[in-house]
C-alpha cells in the first residue's frame, strides 16, 4: 500500500509485491497508509490535512472515518489491531500525553505523562504489542529515544540521540534493532550576476 498523486491529488493505492496490479482504493480522503488489519480487510490512515483517522477497505469498496474529529497525532496501532495509541497535548495542563485506546469501544485504557514535557513523535508499537517506543525533542533540539512498558507507569530512556535531525525510524520485525534516517539541512545563499 502506498500514496500517490498520479491522478492529480494524493490517494491511497495497493499493488502486488512485484509492483503489478496497481489499483486506487481511497475515494475522497487521502493520507499515508499506517496499518493493515491482521485479516487484510482494512487499512487505517490519518488524513494528511485534518489528521482525522480513517479506514478504507482494501478492496476499495468502503471508506469511513474511525472518529468524527481529530484525535491526537502520530497514531500507532497494536499488531493485533485491537488498540490505537496516540500523542496529544492537554489543553488545560499544556503537557504532552500518551494515550492507549481500545478500538472496539473507543475507551481509553492507559494514559501516560511524558518525560520533561518535550515534544514527542514517531510513536510505534513493538511487534509483541507490549511496548510503545517514541522520540522526543527538547528546547535545545536534543533528541531522546524512549520505550514505554504498557504494564508500568514510567518510560525508560533507551538513548540520547544528540541534536541531529531524525527524519524517520523503524523497528525490524524481530524487535532487535531500530533504524534511523538522520541528517541536517544546509541552506546556502548565492548571488548571481546576470550578463546581457
Distance between the termini: 51 Å
Averaged pLDDT, please? 87
Strand content: over 45%
Please count the helical segments.
0
Helix content: under 10%
Radius of gyration: 19 Å
Low-confidence stretches: none
Structural shape: globular
Structural class: mainly beta
Kindly report the spatial arrangement of strands forming the biggest sheet. 4-5-6-7
- Can you write the helix and strand succession as a string? EEEEEEEEEEEEEEEEE
Largest sheet: 4 strands, antiparallel
- Extended strand count: 17
Summarize this entry quickly.
With 196 residues, the protein is mainly β. It has no helices and 17 strands. The relative contact order is 0.09.
What does the model show?
There is one protein chain. The protein has 196 residues and is mainly beta. The chain is 0% helix and 49% strand. It contains no helices and 17 strands.
